[in-house]
Each structure stands twice: as structure tokens, then as C-alpha cells.
Amino acid sequence: MRDVNKHILRFPPLLFLLLALLCVSTLEARTRTTRKNLQTLEVPVAVLEADDSLLPDSLPQLDPNAVTLKGFSKRASDAKESFFITNNTGQRMSAVRLLLRYTTVNGELLTQRTVNVPVSLKPGETKLVEVKSFDVQRLFYFFAGPKPRKQATPFKVAFRLVGYDVPVGN
Description:
By secondary structure, the protein is an alpha/beta fold. It has two helices and eight strands; from the N terminus they run ααββββββββ.
């Protein structure tokens, strides 16, 4: 045993070189799982006009520019829809209510619904939010997103601000 220890102590640079080569070879052999050349889509969600004939008459008249929606995402396999919402007012808001209208890319109405988005936004703040999808059968995908492998129908979405809460206190 003593003879082995003498040889190891006599050749520490060689041992170090072997360990370094082993480490370098394992780094090169790893599988890269990240994608290159990814791009973000800055597709704003269209704002519905206040005089639209398909809107209920009972909706209050709010500033249509009070909130902005961007980055809408819904793949055919998703049970939720996600988007960025921005508070463009000078006051804090919470519990934002939106009327969402879903149409085909040709403009034919699929459905429309009102959703309550439980989010707290400071003035000028943007947050990513999720809501349950209208597409319970998972047959539709957002037209600006990736095209699915399975057969699905692309759709567009437009929104209108229906209301929001202004928190009192802190």
C-alpha cells in the first residue's frame, strides 16, 4: 500500500491532468435542451368598440385605454388562456372584469364571455395572468401562437374593459 501512495504523490500533475480531461469530456457530451433563436410575439389584443352591436347595453362606459392586453397565449392543448395585463390609469386596480370576444380568423363570432381577473395592479404595472379557457374541448388555438400537430381551429380574441375594483387603504 505504501508503494502505491508513493507513486500517487510522485505524479500529482498527471493525476490532475487526467481529472481535468475527464471533466472536459463530460461537458462536451451533455445534451443541449435549450432552443436557439426564439422570438417573442408582441401581438396586442384588439379593443372592442363601445358602439358594437353585439355588446350588452348594460355595460358601463369606461375608458377603453385603461388597460392593455398583450401576449395572449392559448395552445390547442391548454385548459387556460394567459396574457399580460397593464394598468394604464393613475390609480391602483384589482379584480379586473373583461368582456372577451372570440372569433375565427375570418371574423365569424365563436363566443363571447365576461371574465373576472383576480389581479392587483399598481399604476403602470404589468402582470401575467391566467383565466380558464372558453375551449373546454381543446379544439382551438390562438392564431398568433404555434400551430398544433393535431387538427385545431385558429381564433382571434378582442376585449373590452367592463369594470375594475379600486382597493381602499393599503
